[in-house]
Amino acid sequence: MSDPMVIAAGQGRLFRGPTGAPMAVKIDGTATGAAYSLMEYAHAAGARGPPPHVHRQHEEAFRVLTAN
User: Fold this and answer.
1) pLDDT digits (tens, 9 = 90+) for 41-59
2) Which of 48, 45, 59 has the alpha carbon at shortest distance from 20?
3) Three-class HEC string of the chain
4) Longest dimension (CA), the chain
5) pLDDT class for 14, splitting at 50, 70, 90?
6) Is the Cβ–Cβ distance between 60 and 53 less than 8 Å?
7) What are the φ and ψ backbone dihedral angles of 26, each rounded to 5 degrees?
8) Is the dihedral of CA 24, 64, 53, 28 positive or negative?
9) Kindly report the CA angle at 20 between 24 and 49, in degrees rounded to 5?
10) What CA–CA distance (Å, rounded) separates 39 from 55?
11) Which of 20, 29, 40, 55 could bond 24 through an S-S bridge, CB–CB 3.0 to 4.6 Å?
12) What number of other Cβ atoms are within 10 A of residue 38's Cβ?
């Protein structure tokens, strides 16, 4: 088992997401034995989300923390 990790809001490996807003990789498969990855993604209320797409090799889930 690995040691716990704490990665604050806005921290992580940053890159531009599919809608142009920044995304932060909080933890990836190399740290979880390829079990999962976790990313932080925020954008303005009413902004367009990702375009329709399909993942054939993995699942995807969203957790909405706040909504207007």
Assistant:
1) 887 778 777 788 898 888 8
2) 48
3) CCCCCCCCCCCCEEEECCCCCEEEEEECHHHHCCCCCEEEECCCCCCCCCCCCCCCCCCCCCCCCCCC
4) 41
5) very high
6) no
7) -85, -40
8) positive
9) 90
10) 16
11) 40
12) 14
- What's the confidence (pLDDT) of residue 68? 60
Please state, in angstroms and rounded to a whole number, the distance separating the CA atoms of residues 28 and 20. Answer: 21
Name residue 31's amino acid.
Answer: A
pTM for the model stands at 0.66
CA gap 24, 61 in Å, rounded: 16
Q: Tokens at residue 10, please?
A: 């806005």
